[in-house]
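Example record

One chain of 209 residues, shown exactly as stored in the release files.
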Amino acid sequence: MKNHPFVGLAGNIGVGKTTFTEIVAKKMDWIPYYESVADNPYLIDFYRDMSRWSFNLQVYFLHKRFKTHHQMSMSNGGVIQDRTIYEDVEIFARNLHEMKFMSQRDWDTYCDLFNNMIRFLKKPDLIIYLQAKTNVLISRIQNRNRDFEQKIDAEYLHRLNLTYDKWIKGISDIPVLVIDTNEFNIFKDSEKLENIFQQIELKLSESKK
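Predicted structure tokens for this chain:
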């Protein structure tokens, strides 16, 4: 296995990325990097008016993710990132544009910015994709009880899921590990969790060859 692996964790809203990141980081002795949510100055406004705030929100996420990605690339130890920079453009910004919440002008500007940024970034050694059905995501979102998430439209989540599946299937330059979390309780299913750890190690070992 790579001595200092760079692992990106991908997945839809509510799938359990933060918890998974924390547990895997502890097990593997990696440094975790979390998504900027609680201190995000645009999220509440975005969920109230997606057309007005979509570009602002996505640029904020992009700049935060770029900063984190660069920091991880400079790390002397293994790292795992809660959501990758690639999801910003391939999943969230793309959906907002297709749903007419982001104008063509803003989408073009955003893509130009993204493409210039990733020229300076190292690719992850592995992307782990946490997968869950829309109804499971809604249940988990309700259970974690973040006020700004309670009015997320189920159709929006479903569109994100479809886009995620299409994106993951199209990745050819980075190893990918897909984990079905629909029936997975990370706190109780210790046997499955141990199996996941083994799969991660195997994927990283293969990517080193």
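Notes: The first strand starts at residue 6 and ends at 11.
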